[in-house]
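ARCHIVE RECORD
Type: protein–small molecule complex
Small molecule: S-adenosylmethionine
Source of inputs: curated submission
Record status: active
Notes field left blank by submitter.
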Amino acid sequence: MVHAKKRFGQNFLIDEDITEQIADSACLTREDTVLEIGPGTGALTKRLAARAGRVLAVEIDESLGKTLEETLGGMEHVSVLYQDILKCDLDALRADHNDGRAFKVVANLPYYISTPVIMKLLQDTVPPLSCTVMVQKEMGERMCASPGGKEYGALSVAVQYYARPELICEVPPSAFRPQPKVTSAVIRLVPLESAPVSVKDRDFFFRVTEGAFAHRRKTLVNSLSADASLGLSKERIAEALRALAGDGLLSQGGKEAPPENIRAERLSIRAFAALADRLGE
Ligand code: SAM
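STRUCTURE (tokenized, with ligand):
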């Protein structure tokens, strides 16, 4: 039996029904090449291989090589690369393994790198056709959240700027060995053909969003003015929020607060885009 390494976030799937459900929810055809991140012992990989034209699996832990060979031996349309996905040149992977075309990504992601991996995939020059990923349930909820709730935050805005997220199912700790302490969720992300809002400066838009949610309990005016890297005065932020309210972008379903008292969780992506554009002028 393989000894799971904590430092690589190894929680191997042992529930065959759930493994099957993840592979099904990726909507694969023989035309697809799957990029699987972290094949582990290959439980999911072999099910992906049964559905897709090709599977390229990227695994950081070379010591899993023997087990993976046993699980996947003889499957000529499956290749395993022993690399750190965060250091991989995705352009080169596409060129070498899929004639430069986009992959479908499927992964039971190691929790410690879920966010950077997802953002790397979504911000890629050629984004995946879809990403079907297992993440911590709370993270999945944050990716899918709409304005107004406590799950809605900078991650919701960042993910929904690039993709349409959908919660596929929740997965209990008992589906893994060793069992994680938390519940997981499978999320399917379909990258958008174009951004849902246009912004003058995308980096600034994301910095404003992060600054806005850095102190959730504070008002936007206090939270954004506390971020020294943005260099924004309270008056400037309040003025921009009043302008947004004038444009009808701060509507709160009847519970209208003065614009300068509003908190970040109330702003839609469209409102954040308008706010960043105004503050960046
Ligand atoms: N797919 C397997 C399964 O479902 O049973 C394993 C999932 S386990 C949660 C995460 C896998 O990602 C492990 O095999 C781990 O070694 C691998 N991994 C961790 N960090 C990685 C990285 N930076 N790049 C590639 N693989 C990584």
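CURATOR ANNOTATION: The longest strand covers residues 163-171.
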